[in-house]
């Protein structure tokens, strides 16, 4: 008969057996952004004290047109998470956002990432008073338009919103900026698949792109969880 192992060895073996699975789960979790709940922006009205029944603005994409004038079917936005910006026809040289970094972000962090396959980029094109066509600007930008759409429309569709502190970026002058006339022109909006604004970022500040990536991941996971629950 084989002698039994000492008690301390058996206890040590049991500890190892129990800890290994938990360690693997922990290490796997480190590779993903922290799961958290994103805020809602764009208060329309508050129905009770403490904003427990706050009504938030829902963005409608109905009727948006591409640069060629064709209307984008509503079906194309179903289940999509949107990142919205404005662009001038003078971009990237005179531009309210860091367009080269946004382009790099789109191609390196989003396209081809299975976790973010429902993310769509929308840029609202604005004429900055120069004799440059949007198509010429986009030809120089050289981007894949399958998930980055350049549209015509009034900016208030997206940006005319009241924030928690009462400010409305659509109605504010930007100050002494050489690149934008209104505050909203320097912003990027993150809009969920239901039309709610879930993130607001300064498109002319490099560190914001890291925050956008983390929030995109969180929101895409939130959508996939909601889709799974509805089945």
Explain what this protein looks like in three dimensions.
Helix content is 30%, strand content 18%. The chain is of the alpha/beta class and 231 residues long. It has one domain: Glutaredoxin (3-Layer(aba) Sandwich). The protein has a six-stranded mixed sheet with strand order 3-6-5-4-7-8, with helices on one face. The protein has a two-stranded antiparallel sheet with strand order 1-2. A hairpin with a 5-residue loop joins strand 7 and strand 8.
Question: How would you summarize this macromolecular structure in one to three sentences?
Answer:
This protein is of the alpha/beta class and 231 residues long. It has helices at 7-30, 99-110, 134-141, 156-159, 208-229; strands at residues 43-46, 54-56, 65-66, 81-88, 119-126, 148-152, 187-191, 197-202.
Write the layout of secondary structure elements.
Layout: H1 7-30, E1 43-46, E2 54-56, E3 65-66, E4 81-88, H2 99-110, E5 119-126, H3 134-141, E6 148-152, H4 156-159, E7 187-191, E8 197-202, H5 208-229
Parallel strand pairs: 4-5, 5-6
Antiparallel strand pairs: 1-2, 3-6, 4-7, 7-8
CATH class: Alpha Beta
CATH architecture name: 3-Layer(aba) Sandwich
Flag low-confidence runs. 24-34
Strand content: 15-25%
Mean pLDDT: 77
Distance between the termini: 57 Å
Considering DSSP H and I runs of 4 or more, what fraction of the residues is helical?
Answer: 25-40%
What structural class do helix, strand and pairing data support? alpha/beta
The profile of the biggest β sheet is: 6 strands, mixed
The CATH topology, please? Glutaredoxin
Compute the number of strand runs: 8
Number of helices: 5
Count of individual domains: 1
Query: What does the overall shape look like?
Result: globular
Series of H and E elements: HEEEEHEHEHEEH
Radius of gyration: 23 Å
Q: Can you list the strand order of the major beta sheet? A: 3-6-5-4-7-8
The CATH homology group name: Glutaredoxin
């Amino acid at each position: 008969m084989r002698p039994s192992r000492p008690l301390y060895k058996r206890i040590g073996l049991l500890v190892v057996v129990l800890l290994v699975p938990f360690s693997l789960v922990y290490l796997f979790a480190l590779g993903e952004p922290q799961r958290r709940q994103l805020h809602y922006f764009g208060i329309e009205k508050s129905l009770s004290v403490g904003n427990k029944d706050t009504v938030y603005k829902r963005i409608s994409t109905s009727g948006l047109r591409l640069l060629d004038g064709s209307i984008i079917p509503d079906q194309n936005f179903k289940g999509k998470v949107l990142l919205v910006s404005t662009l001038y026809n003078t971009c990237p040289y005179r531009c309210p956002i860091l367009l080269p970094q946004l382009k790099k972000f789109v191609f390196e962090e989003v396209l081809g990432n299975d976790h973010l396959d429902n993310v769509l980029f929308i840029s609202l094109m604005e004429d900055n008073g120069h004799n440059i066509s949007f198509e010429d600007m986009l030809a120089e930008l050289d981007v894949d338009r399958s998930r980055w759409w350049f549209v015509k429309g009034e900016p208030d569709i997206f940006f005319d919103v009241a924030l928690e502190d009462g400010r409305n970026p659509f109605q504010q002058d930007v100050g002494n900026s050489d690149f934008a006339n209104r505050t909203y022109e320097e912003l990027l909006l993150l809009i969920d698949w239901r039309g709610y604004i879930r993130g607001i970022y300064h498109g002319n500040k490099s560190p914001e792109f890291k925050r956008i990536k983390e929030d995109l991941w969180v929101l895409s996971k939130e959508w996939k969880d909601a889709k799974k629950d509805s089945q």
